[in-house]
Amino acid sequence: MPSVFLIAFLTAWFVVISINSFGLSPEERSQKAVRPFSKIINLSPVLGLAVFALLFAFVLKGRLTERAAHALLVFALWMYAARFYLYILSYYKHRATVVSSIIGMLLSAGLAIVLTPLDRYIGLIYSFMGWSSLFIGCILMAVFYTIALHKTQKEDLK
User: Fold this and answer.
1) Collapsing DSSP states into helix, strand and coil, what is residue 131?
2) How far is CA 141 from CA 45, 129, 132, 152, in A?
3) Predicted model pTM
4) CB 3.0–4.6 Å: which of 23, 76, 133, 155 could bond 140 by disulfide?
């Protein structure tokens, strides 16, 4: 159950840092690296969905609900880590944003690494929540894309 609280804390941390970074302008030097990386991050769920669909259809048999919830949650955690990394690259002159993003990136990547083995995920999250743990992954992705799309629209208006 503590891992669920850590995930909730990470989501709140991500929202706070993202809202604080709305007023900041990205550094021009980093835009060459940040723009393509941001587009890749925003499009990666399509690729991930195709890979997971192929794996679930042809390779992974049984425990479909557990595997789908696990894949969604771990994928969302890696997406958070990547977005925190983008914040580090974009706002490297803003010390508070960089430090907060480093903490968020380490927490997100650490949770993703800890929860990557399916048996550990089942022991830490799925055993407490059952199939409703799928909603945690959906909420994480919804929060991520709400902020990512808002930031993308803001950058396109400039």
Assistant:
1) helix
2) 10, 18, 15, 16
3) 0.85
4) 76
- Read off the pLDDT of residues 55-106 as tens digits, 9 standing for 90 and up: 877 877 777 788 888 888 999 999 999 999 988 988 888 888 899 999 999 9
Which amino acid is it at 8? A
pLDDT digits (tens, 9 = 90+) for 2-21: 888 889 999 999 999 988 88
Gap between the Cα atoms of 33 and 90, Å rounded: 9
Instruction: Give Cα separations from 59 to 56, 101, 115, 120 (angstroms).
Output: 6, 37, 21, 21
Q: How far is CA 153 from the centre of its chain?
A: 19
Q: Would you list the DSSP string of 18-64?
A: HHHHTTS---GGGHHHHHHHHHHHHHHHHHHHHHHHHIIIII--S-H
> Encoding tokens for residue 157?
């208006």
d(CA 122, CA 56): 18
